Amino acid sequence: MTTTLPRTPHPVPGTQLPDARGRFGDFGGAFVPEILHPVLMEVKEAWQSIQGDKAFWTEHRRLLRDYVGRPTPLTRADRLAERIGARGPIYLKREDLCHTGAHKINNAIGQVQLAMRMGKKRIIAETGAGQHGVATATACALFGVECVVYMGEEDIHRQNLNVQRMKLLGAEVRSAMSGSRTLKDATNEAFRDWVSNPHDTHYIIGSVVGPHPYPALVRDFHRIIGEETRAQLLETEGRETPDVIVACVGGGSNAIGIWAPFVDDNDVILVGAEAAGEGLGPGQKHAATLSRGSLAVFHGSRSYLLQDSDGQVQEAHSISAGLDYPGVGPEHAYHKSTGRIDYRPVTDAEAMTALQLLSETEGIIPALETAHAVALLTPLAQEYPDAVVVLNCSGRGDKDMETITARLGG
């Protein structure tokens, strides 16, 4: 298995989008209050300045290797494959083994580097499951920067372990008390803070959502996941591309990260799992934005959004705090519109069954987010029984143990 990281990636070959206006086809853009336009332009210019900056990426990749622990392994899951009747190999891309326990640290390290370059003295972030908050607090501690993390009151209750981790790392955790008191409301509070403190504060958005250039910026920092996968598959299977890549999609950062280097390989089937919560029937609560959402401008960009008949934001629901978000990144909306990526809904119950399956067969307790992707492996094994399949194991399940235990009645 490879022990070195792929070379500095920029300029990124084959990446045509977003365009100069930050659009992915009909999606994306930058819709923000007037006071944030100059600050957003500053972020855009900083993002553009690093794209060909070999020194920036060399330092970034050094930190990923020496601090984050990359490259993460590509683990073959033979007992899982046997249990679900797959004849081809199933591989797990082990982002759960990153420092802090999830892929989020890739982006957090990169954006704090970017903030330092812009001369910002203060970092703010929003978090749902807490993994982005922990990653941001960790990166801020590493660089010695002030950190404030906004988190919904409901998520603070669900993810208490991660709240304590953020505080121990020196971050201030501020509770979002409005609305459903989840990720959407934490994001609202973070935007209000940014509007009030635009000159000394950098807002680290944790997924491929928000106004341009954030969807592309976050994608660039997570692209390493897919680049490593290509190199590792060449070593283990003698080919750079698998037949199928599966990942969970809330905002969509881990999925974009592993798919980005494969999206132009049209023979690679890309499958996304989104949270269907209680189900997609009338009156049932869910977070299936791509299955049931409609077009709107939300949190600074145009994408699919769960809305009621009056056009108001519909409260999302998922057993996974990280997927409990009514919007989705604009690049995902674009890929849905073109049919390039197959997005499928997975219920809370199906995710819990999948979590137990992976735990029992491979000794790996996945995050509830990841469990949604695991749930798609069984139907995919029926559809493509001989396929080489890669699943992005986006995070570990320690943070979800209270929710899991309550659900199982333990």
TrEMBL record:
Residues 69-394 form the Tryptophan synthase beta chain-like PALP domain. It comes from the Bacteria. GO terms for molecular function: tryptophan synthase activity. The modification N6-(pyridoxal phosphate)lysine is found at residue 104. PROSITE patterns: TRP_SYNTHASE_BETA. It catalyses: (1S,2R)-1-C-(indol-3-yl)glycerol 3-phosphate + L-serine = D-glyceraldehyde 3-phosphate + L-tryptophan + H2O. Its EC number is 4.2.1.20. Pathway: Amino-acid biosynthesis; L-tryptophan biosynthesis; L-tryptophan from chorismate: step 5/5. Its cofactor is pyridoxal 5'-phosphate. It is an enzyme of class 4 (lyase). Keywords: Amino-acid biosynthesis, Aromatic amino acid biosynthesis, Lyase, Pyridoxal phosphate, Tryptophan biosynthesis. InterPro entries: Trp_synth_b_CS, Trp_synth_beta, Trp_synth_beta/beta-like, TrpB-like_PALP, TrpB-like_PALP_sf. Pfam families: PALP (PF00291). GO terms for cellular component: cytoplasm. SUPFAM superfamilies: Tryptophan synthase beta subunit-like PLP-dependent enzymes (SSF53686). Belongs to the TrpB family. This is Tryptophan synthase beta chain. It comes from Rubricoccus marinus.
